[in-house]
Amino acid sequence: MNSSEKVALVTGGARGIGAAIVRQLAAEGISVAFTYSKSTEQAEALAASVSGASGVACLAIRADVRKMEEVAAAVDQIKAAHDRIDILVNNAGIVRDWPLITLEESDWHDVVDTNLSGAFNACKRIVPLMLRQRSGVIVNISSVAGLVGVPGQINYSATKAGLIGMTRSLARECASRNIRVNAVAPGFIRTEMTEGLSDSLKEASLERIPLKRFGEAKDVAALTCFLVSDAASYITGGVFVVDGGLTA
Asked: Given this model, what pLDDT does residue 232 score?
């Protein structure tokens, strides 16, 4: 199967790292669908731009990854259009950063339900399709926060560590059916999320990064696209860090 016959789903693909992955996959000739939760206008503009630039189908689907029924409906919509899904990138994620003593239960559940349960919901619906196809690739977008822990981010760090555990377990479950599962763990990447950090925190963060700069969304997209390609056909169960040397 060449790239022009493959179909990908990227969750949380309307902006930031997700949007960069959508663009890169489409540039490789892969038909792409992505979910989003807000800003229909922004999502539809991205889909039109990507399709126009690449010449492949790009579908924006409004779906809350926390809700299994909405994920199922999104998968059904993709199946109706393409009859298969070859690539799943679990990228949807949010932050609710507070120290434990001020962290509300709702902040914990919102992050866990989106970042971790959202990935479970997508895998639960798509892995059976891949099993029947006897092929597929899943990439879970984790974080260095899941490797080292970040103060004030116990909810976020827990979900990103959970994605790594999910990746390694699912890789073992699915390998016999030619389904590969890997995780990418970005560090400080320049997105809307990191642009909201204070100048002092940005400066402190840069001091800890050996390359002395933040990464770009395209850096994560490039690695993700390599992992879903045939060039990475012997790679599964891995966790790949994109952090400028932060955790080296």
From this structure: 98
Out of 156, 188, 214, 240, pick the active-site residue.
Answer: 156
Using 50, 70 and 90 to split pLDDT, how confident is the model at 199? confident
Distance between CA atoms of 187 and 70, rounded to whole angstroms? 30
| HEC secondary structure over the chain | CCHHHCEEEECCCCCHHHHHHHHHHHHCCCEEEEEECCCHHHHHHHHHHHHHHHCCCEEEEECCCCCHHHHHHHHHHHHHHHCCCCEEEECCCCCCCCCHHHCCHHHHHHHHHHHHHHHHHHHHHHHHHHHHHCCEEEEEECCCHHHHCCCCCHHHHHHHHHHHHHHHHHHHHHHHHCEEEEEEEECCEECHHHHCCCHHHHHHHHHHCCCCCCEEHHHHHHHHHHHCCHHHCCCCCCEEEECCCCCC
Is 36 labeled as catalytic in the residue annotation?
Answer: no
Q: Is the dihedral of CA 165, 97, 89, 239 positive or negative?
A: negative
Say if CB 145 and CB 102 are below 8 A apart: no
Rounded-to-integer distance, Cα 15 and Cα 6, Å: 22
Q: What is the pLDDT of residues 239-248, one digit of tens each?
A: 999 999 999 8
Q: What is the pLDDT of residues 174-185, one digit of tens each?
A: 999 999 999 999
- Dihedral angle at the C-alpha atoms of 144, 236, 128, 83, nearest 10 degrees? 100
Residue 2: per-residue pLDDT? 64
**Are 226 and 26 in contact, with CB atoms under 8 Å apart?**
no
Give CA–CA dist 8/27, Å, rounded.
12
